[in-house]
Amino acid sequence: MNHREINKTIKSYSKYYRNVLINEGLEDVDQRMASYETRLKEMYDSNEFKAHDIYPSTNVSFVYAVIAMCLELKEAGYTDDRIIPAVEKGMEGRWKAFVKILNFIDRFPFCFSVVRKWNESDHADRVKDNSITYDYFNLEKDKVEYHISKCMYVEMFSCYGIRPLCKIFCNTDRIAYSGLTGHVEFIRHSDLSDGDACFDEIIRR
Asked: How is residue 142 annotated by DSSP?
């Protein structure tokens, strides 16, 4: 990204961090925002970002924006158990619109077929750009099951020493499937933020 694109991207994502600060009742919001934006700009200029920003299926600039939020909150004395819900709440507006769309799709009997197709397409994209390593990916008529041993989301958080906080992104699957409870059952056995694998089952109800 050039400097203009970086500034535009930071402005787009900084609103979520402001939400976090306000929700948490923290003082010196403007000062904390300036610190966050400076950190994120430095991260976007880093060799680490250049090395990671090679996966078309992954919004790496957004992942880095969330990592920067986590690092700022850690410096403010927050524990991981506090950071995860704080960041999720600050970004809930981002997910609400998506969940509403899923709620609408969930009204129709072809819902699982759509979800099955989404998973098939996502798997193809991830394999193509090598952003996720699947031990296996089973696509059946009434079930999708996969086992993942490496994920670049987790690798990016690990690069900054905060692997457990990738739970924020791991949880987005749970959020998405919360809008599809009529025709789809989502079972997460484990994820890579705190385990050896991401193991999910998606079953037609």
From this structure: S
